[in-house]
Specification:
Distance between the termini: 42 Å
Helix content: 25-40%
Number of strands: 9
Number of helices: 10
Length: 296
């Protein structure tokens, strides 16, 4: 939730914002007052803290602190880009996921809290005292693979992605978080895993239908299309993974897939048709179908 330094005012236009700037109202409180009139209060907080390189708790005691004109101008520029819809994660270049601090760029999907359920379910099937092999398909920023690698240091992970730019980000995030038990490979889904078998395969693939109107709204407009949508029903990638995964799983190995809130029944059918047993769908904190899994 936003830190309530002051109540959010009625919306000011850009002219009012710059008038306040020229009146030397360059304090934390005044800058946030004007920014919150244009964008979400939480977003305003994060952007100012990013510019000032301060932790979130800093705002409680520093509302009256002066902000340099240079930093105020940088903040204003970020606010205006946010007004135009650019995601905060791309503006700051980072996003927290699990216990990690991850770099993100427009080459990668922005990690979301609901994907932590995929991590939780995978960890429940990865013994902490065993050197299991795990594959993460379509790793993007590396969020899922790196979260699993941190929690299971004995595990060996292979993370694949069709985007070289995304893999560069993921490799950087492994270094950033000092995680060495992840190998990154270029290629579509399971193609880079030829002849190999794993104990667990996880994926957060694209699952939005190609012509879903949500793709033209909010942050999704700025995220890589190949990481968001796949087919007329959004299930093309999941179909490919379900069919190919058994050849890459050891007996008793698990496949876990994140998907859309209305896709649970269809994904369960795909896994059963591919020969998986013990197939079930796990719901997220908002009681929405989110992760479907099955065992080879």
């Amino acid at each position: 939730e936003a830190i309530n330094i002051m109540a959010r005012p009625q919306c000011f236009g850009a002219a009012s914002y710059h008038a306040a700037m020229t009146a030397n109202a360059l304090t934390v409180a005044h800058l946030l007052l004007q920014a919150r009139a244009q964008i979400d209060a939480v977003d305003a907080d994060y952007l100012l803290l990013h510019v000032l390189n301060q932790p979130r708790s800093w705002l409680f005691a520093h509302a009256s602190d002066a902000v340099s004109p240079t930093d105020a101008a940088r903040f204003d520029a970020l606010v205006q880009r946010r007004v135009c819809g650019e995601p905060v994660a791309y503006l700051t270049g980072s996003r927290g996921f699990w216990t990690l601090d991850l770099a993100v760029t427009p080459a990668t999907l922005i990690p979301r809290p609901e994907t932590e359920l995929l991590v939780e379910q995978a960890l429940a099937r990865m013994p902490a005292d065993t050197a299991v092999r795990v594959a993460d398909l379509g790793t993007g920023s590396g969020a899922v693979a790196l979260a699993l690698a941190k929690e299971r240091p004995l595990a060996q992970l292979v993370a694949t992605d069709a985007s070289c730019d995304a893999l560069d980000v993921a490799r950087g995030n492994a270094q950033r978080n000092a995680l060495v038990n992840v190998e990154f490979r270029h290629g579509d889904w399971l193609t880079p895993l030829l002849g190999e078998r794993f104990d667990v395969i996880v994926s957060n693939p694209p699952y939005i239908a190609d012509h879903d109107p949500h793709l033209d709204q909010g942050d999704l407009r700025f995220e890589p299309a190949l990481a968001l949508s796949c087919g007329v029903d959004g299930l093309d990638a999941i179909r490919m993974i379900a069919i190919a995964a058994p050849a890459h799983l050891r007996a008793g190995g698990w496949l876990l897939l994140e998907h859309g809130l209305d896709q649970g029944p269809a994904v369960r059918t795909l896994l059963r048709d591919a020969g998986f047993y013990g197939v079930k769908t796990v719901r997220d904190l908002e009681a929405r179908d989110r992760v479907t899994l099955g065992q080879r």
